[in-house]
Every structure is written in structure tokens, then in C-alpha cells.
Amino acid sequence: MKYEGPKIIELGEREALARAVKAFKSVPSTLVGSGDDAAVVALDDPRVVVTTDTMIENHDFKLEWSSAFDIGFKAVMTNLSDLVAMGARPRALTVALIVPNQTAQSWLEEFALGLQTACDQHAPQCEIVGGDLATGDQLVVAVTALGDLGDSAPVLRSTAKVGDQVIVAGTLGKAAAGLSLLQAADSTLADSYPELVGIQLRPVPDLALGTEVARTATSMMDISDGLSLDADRLASKSNVSLALKRSLLEGYSAVLELAAQSINSRTPNSVSEWNWVLHGGEDHSFLATFPAGSQLPRGAKVIGEVIELKEHGVFLDQEPLTAAGWDSIRG
Amino acid sequence: MKYEGPKIIELGEREALARAVKAFKSVPSTLVGSGDDAAVVALDDPRVVVTTDTMIENHDFKLEWSSAFDIGFKAVMTNLSDLVAMGARPRALTVALIVPNQTAQSWLEEFALGLQTACDQHAPQCEIVGGDLATGDQLVVAVTALGDLGDSAPVLRSTAKVGDQVIVAGTLGKAAAGLSLLQAADSTLADSYPELVGIQLRPVPDLALGTEVARTATSMMDISDGLSLDADRLASKSNVSLALKRSLLEGYSAVLELAAQSINSRTPNSVSEWNWVLHGGEDHSFLATFPAGSQLPRGAKVIGEVIELKEHGVFLDQEPLTAAGWDSIRG
């Protein structure tokens, strides 16, 4: 993608930032916003929830595929889903951005707009309160997000109970399908599946649904690295095993069949919709456990149940489901 | 510096992190530490103070000069000084680390020890509660720090009053002198001034003194980019000018004279102790304003006074002092 106009380096950090932060809106809970040594954010509850997540060029995104807007948007959403998975309301973000030295100011301003738009659409009470801008060899975005628990208890990964239902709130495998479409040898394929590609580039986990799930969930996490790996983490932290049912996951794979066929018709057997569903990351949907028999929020789906700890963390129709998701070091 | 043993990439993110975080100590205020979607930290006060700062290989440090321990230590101290400059007590840190893919696990573990040692020595109530580890083209450390205001008001940059004394708490120019020594053509020079080089590699702003200053200061900030630039920022935010006196700064330059002479005897006129004092960054000392006549904490020094806004933000003996500090984009 092409970004015209002056380079950030021609403007200097102060001026470049001053122009970019004009995109940011303030919220009443921010007592001191950006521009001082630190920001001050008034929470309702003195228990602050904090998470941080980094996106790196060519590891987590490619500049051929992602616009500046996409990268800003995604950086925010991946962090907000972590807060919501704890049962917290997003209240503030800080953004450390490293850009290659020839980056255009117009890129920076569109990135800032992506950050703000994600907040506007998904967390209007959350402000971008500070950050850092510097140059480096490759583009890096490190976001830290702060959340407020109100008077709720945090929802952990470690508190699933035997007999609970295992549920998913949100899509599974769509972001991975989008990635496969972008990677396909036939570069026109991606255009045929804009929804899937869109979820890869600008994930939109349903934070309102996640917030509702958190009210009743006995345990919860966001699925960032794929169902198999993240379910294994939840099982391990909770000292239980999870028995998932393929029949309950069929709805997720069915909507991806056509995309998988399209890719495989060009490069046979290169992808599988079940691989996307079971092992694909980046939808940032929610995995949770619910007390048996409790009413599920509309949009959440049961995919299995919590059983006593066995030799494996996760089973699919009685067979061990080996974790095969994303490791940020080994890929 | 040499780091032996297995590479991080051979271990994978999970195992590499699990070994490194063993260096971290927990504190009682951390309700949920690392290992979940987010951490939960109990503050005394629901106003959370948050700051973030990034260090990039070859921009902010060089691996020939800085050990893994140094880099971890410095990343923590630069963030803690920002919290203290707001009048906040450090309570939690998150650390996003990007390492080149051939980095040894022993490097990572020494880095973690540097992080923890800075907390142990300077902020024992502060815990490293989370973070992120990934590989990239160059080493990047992005730290976010959370602070607690207790029942104090935050100390801003924007509230200096005409008639206040301008004060400094901590060293000025030593970190810059250390950098010049490391950069000197004669590589044995650095060994002759271990204190100055030490402050460059592992800055130790006096956080206890800063905390005491914050109790009375009418305005305050940390001096990260050099006195001239940071004083100008404070003046600009407060809509005042600052009249500094050279005679009051002589103590800072006197202790750097010998180092400057040593460098200049090899490369004539390459450095000046006054340049270090006026424009050198990275000591992370505190710049503050105090009501006229109020008692100064031991260790704080008056360097001038706050005057009405004039054409320039900062004057040195009636002459405009042009900001010449560090811009993270332009250097």
C-alpha cells in the first residue's frame, strides 16, 4: 500500500506524534492524558487489570496485506479481548510504536485512526493515554491495555470445574482461513472471501458477548493461538481435561468448507477447514467454562465438557487432541 | 558479550519464558500474576498511573556495551523514574521483549535478572506481572509501568508557578559523559571512569529522593532527554519561562571536567562537560519546581527560578538556552 507525503523522520518525534494523536478522543475517566511523564486513569475499582501484546512486521502481519489502519485496529482488538477474557472493562491503552525510518507521516496518522476506530466501535470508554514513537529496522507495535473489574471477581483460566460445559463465544478458524487465502498462490482468491480475510486483518471479537459470558463463566480465556493450544492451556491451569465433541464444532467448519475447497482446487490438499477450526489462531474469540445446566448467552455455543484430569489436556471425541497452535518464537 | 548454551528458539516461547520468569519475585498486591490473559494488581487508590518506554538495539543501546543484565536494569529504571516523577509508587511492570532469533536462553535469563534486580534495589513493592516474548530482526524492550498515587495528587509538568524555585534531584550529564566515553576512539578510556559509564549503562535515579521531592513540588518531570529540552517542555506545559543560573549548575559540570579533558586530549574539542550537563539525557534525574522559600529535601539543588513566560522557554544567565536534547526519531 502506498503512503504519500512527508516522512515521520522529517517531522521529528514531537511534531509527528502531535499530528497523529489528534485522532485520539478523550474519555472522562482519564485524569491525565498523554503529554506528561505518565497518564493517570480513574478506575471504579483499585484492582487494575493489565495485559500487553506485541505485533511484529513479517511475523504477525505483512505490509503487503495490512494497511496502517488494519494494524492499528488489530493491535487494539487483540489486547481488548484479553481484558474482556478476564471479566474487565477496557479503560486505557498505551501504544509503543517502532517504525522504519522512511515511514510516511500519512501511515502514522492512518495507524492512529485504526487504533481509535477500534476503541470507538468496541470500547468507547477506553482511551489511548500514552505511548512511544521511535525508529527501528522493522515495524513493531506493542500495546498495553488496562481494564477495570468494577465489583466483579477476575475470571481466570485456572478455575474450570469438572462437569462444566466448555463453550466458545465467537468465530473459530475464520482468521486462519483468511491467512491461508492471503497466502494462496492465486492472489485473486482473497478477494472472493472478504469476510474471512477481513477477520484476519481486522479481528472483531464480540466483546459485548465476551463480557456477558464473563458474568457466569467459571473460567475463561481468549483464543489467540488456536483452540487446541489454548484449550490445553486452560485445562493445564485448571488441572482438568476437556472433552470436546466434533459434532458440536461442525458449525464452525461448515462455513469454511467452500474457502478450503477453493484453495485446494488450486493447490490440492494444502489446507483443511478442520485444521483452521481446531488449530487456527487470531479470531480472538472466547473459550470459557459454564456451570452445567446454566443458561448460555445468545451467540455462545457448547463444544464439550470439563472432565477429570487424564493423560491429555484436550480430547476430541475421546481421542487426544494435540496442541498445534502458534508459538510466537517458533511460529 | 558472550552468552552460551541453548538458543531461545530451540526451547520455544513457553519453555524459554517459564525458565526466565523464575527470576521474578511476587509481591502481595499482585492478585493475578503472569500466566493468565492479563494480570490483576491491587492498588491502594483507583487512580492508576501508567507509562511506557521502549529501548531499541543500536538506537538506545549497543550489545557491545550493554550486558543482558544492563538492558533489563535500564528498561526498568527509565520507567520507574517516570512514575516517581508523577508522585506515584511503582507497583507493576509488563515487559514486551523482541529478540533476534539466535539469542541464547542465557541472555534471556540474565535480562530477567536485570529486570528483577532493579525492582529489588529500587522498588521492592513492584512486580513484573506479565509480558510478551517474540523474535524479530533486532532487540527491542518495551516496558509499561503502573503506579499507585495513594492519596496524593499527581504531580504534573503543567503546574509550575512564577516565583517557584527550579530544582534538580540527581545527577546531570553523567550518563551523557558515560556515552561519550564508550564512544571514544580510545577504547580504554571507558575503564577509567566506571561511575560515569555505569550510569549510562545502568542508570540509578534516586527514586527515594524523587518521591520526597514529589510531596512538595508544584511541578515535576524526569529528565530523560536532557535538561535543555526537558526544561523547555516543562516551561511550555506550564506557560512560564525558567531562568537557570550557570553558577548553580557548576557543581554538575565540575565533576565531569576530568572525563571531558581525557577525551579531548585524544580528540581535541570533541566534547564539553557543559554540553553534557545542559543537553545530555538518560540520567533520569528529576526536574521540579518548589514554592519559593520552602525547605528542599537533602540532595535536591536549586538551579534557577520560574519567571513569567517570555519569548523563550528556558534562559541560562539571561541568554536563551536552545533545546538540544534527544529526539527519538531524529536522534
What would your notes on this structure say?
The structure is a homodimer of 331-residue chains. Chain A is of the alpha+beta class and 331 residues long. Chain A folds into 2 domains: 8-148, 60s Ribosomal Protein L30, Chain: A, CATH 3.30.1330; 165-320, Phosphoribosyl-aminoimidazole Synthetase, Chain A, domain 2 (Alpha-Beta Complex), CATH 3.90.650.10. The first copy, chain A, is built from 11 helices and 13 strands. Chain A has helices at residues 8-20, 68-85, 105-122, 174-183, 189-192, 194-201, 207-216, 227-238, 246-254, 257-266, 273-279; strands at residues 30-32, 39-42, 47-56, 89-99, 127-135, 140-148, 165-169, 219-223, 240-244, 285-290, 300-308, 314-316, 319-320. Chain A has a 7-stranded mixed beta sheet with strand order 8-10-7-11-9-12-13. The longest helix of chain A has 18 residues, at 68-85. The model of chain A has no long low-confidence stretch (mean pLDDT 95). At the A-B interface, helix 1, strand 2, strand 3, helix 2 and strand 4 of A face helix 1, strand 2, strand 3, helix 2 and strand 4 of B. Strand 2 (39-42) of chain A pairs antiparallel with strand 3 of chain B.
